[in-house]
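User: Reviewer 2 asked us to show a designed sequence for the structure in our supplementary figure. I'm pasting the structure tokens here. Could you produce the per-position amino acids so we can include them in the response letter?
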């Protein structure tokens, strides 16, 4: 019977010099699942990953990898005994070793190691490049060498820390697609750290959003996007702006009109609606409800920032053919085809 390659983290705490940087972190990653851990710089993503790898000891908490306890109160298994593969931002491949020697690094010697190296190079699409030196490869190819090296010793889990941040935007998009397919093909259980929400939504079967050392929400990318549980999660995912509203018998009243949405709050309650740029329509109008603050050309679309008459700033995506100069008076309205997330303070109320 194969090993159940799941990861269980329970109540992880980690501090540095009295400053708590990981606080009460709980999550499970099922066998073969990719968890994307995302959040702003300094929120504790890398530290969480390093406690799983065994490079940091926990203050409190418990970690199991493939049903084996690897860290508990005051006790921890050293990294080399955890059967964890790691891929870092800077590839960490050895410049003085060939591609094949890099991949074979953790494999020992012998015919089996040579065969495994060849198999891994073929698997990541680098067959025939084993004798090449790393500097002769592109950034994307080097990242594939790092992945092949991490996967070669058959780790029970793979930890990836911002692995694409050295690559330019176009290459990053291509390589992350390749890496996701490769991870799915091996059936690897993986935890993927990134500060880039788009990358997290793309790569994760589940996404955990971290803020100031805590995990605010773990869900599938779709649920996270459509049903954020906190204002922070809503603001972090999907270019969100917030519009004040008042609950009434007809729905939620706002400067942009009434949103026909039922909400279980008393009439007169003040809320905020999370708006994504595709939730708003926009048209030039002499007596509108806002004016254009900026326009960003994104190729297939323009992203407009609009200051409403009450000072709230919202965003709207419009076709690249709609060219409205900064300062234009506009009428902004809801493009309502799904319920919008609604918040009282930090808390979601729908
Ligand atoms: P980034 O995306 O910028 O890498 P992150 O979310 O991965 O950020 P961490 O690297 O985990 O964040 O850092 C969390 C906090 O812990 C930061 O304030 C950082 O300065 C601090 N920290 C991390 N490692 C150490 C250390 N070895 N000694 C002291 N403080 C540390």
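Assistant: Here is a per-position design you can include in the supplement:
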């Amino acid at each position: 019977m194969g090993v159940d390659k799941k990861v269980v983290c329970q109540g992880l705490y980690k501090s540095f010099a009295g400053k708590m940087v990981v606080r009460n972190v709980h999550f499970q990653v099922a066998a073969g699942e990719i968890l994307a851990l995302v959040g702003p710089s300094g929120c504790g993503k890398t530290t969480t990953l390093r406690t799983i790898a065994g490079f940091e000891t926990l203050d409190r908490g418990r970690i199991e990898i493939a049903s084996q306890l690897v860290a508990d109160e005051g006790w921890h298994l050293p990294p080399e005994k955890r059967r964890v593969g790691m891929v870092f931002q800077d590839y960490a491949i050895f410049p003085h070793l060939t591609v094949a020697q890099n991949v074979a690094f953790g494999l020992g010697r012998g015919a089996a190691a040579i065969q495994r190296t060849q198999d891994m190079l073929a698997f990541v699409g680098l067959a025939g490049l084993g004798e090449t030196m790393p500097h002769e490869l592109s950034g994307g190819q080097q990242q594939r060498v790092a992945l092949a090296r991490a996967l070669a010793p058959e780790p029970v889990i793979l930890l990836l820390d911002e692995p694409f941040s050295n690559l330019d935007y176009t290459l990053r998009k291509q390589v992350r697609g390749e890496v996701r397919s490769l991870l799915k093909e091996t059936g690897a259980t993986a935890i993927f750290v990134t500060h880039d929400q788009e990358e997290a939504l793309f790569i994760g079967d589940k996404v955990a959003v971290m803020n100031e050392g805590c995990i605010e929400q773990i869900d599938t990318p779709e649920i996270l996007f459509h049903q954020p549980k906190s204002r922070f999660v809503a603001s972090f995912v999907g270019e969100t702006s917030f519009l004040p509203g008042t609950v009434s018998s007809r729905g939620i009243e706002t400067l942009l009109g009434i949103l026909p949405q039922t909400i279980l709050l008393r009439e007169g309650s003040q809320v905020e609606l999370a708006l994504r740029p595709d939730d708003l329509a926009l048209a030039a109008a002499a007596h509108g409800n806002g004016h254009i603050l900026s326009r960003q050309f994104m190729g297939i679309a323009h992203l407009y920032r609009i200051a409403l008459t009450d000072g709230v700033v919202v965003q709207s995506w419009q076709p690249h053919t709609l060219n409205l100069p900064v300062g234009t008076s506009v009428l902004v309205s809801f493009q309502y085809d799904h319920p919008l997330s609604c918040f009282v303070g930090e808390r979601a109320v729908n």
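For the response letter, you might also mention the following. The pocket of adenosine-5'-triphosphate is lined by residues 16, 21, 39, 41-47, 195 (CB under 6 Å). Residues 240-349 form a domain with the OB fold (Dihydrolipoamide Acetyltransferase, E2P) fold (CATH 2.40.50.140).
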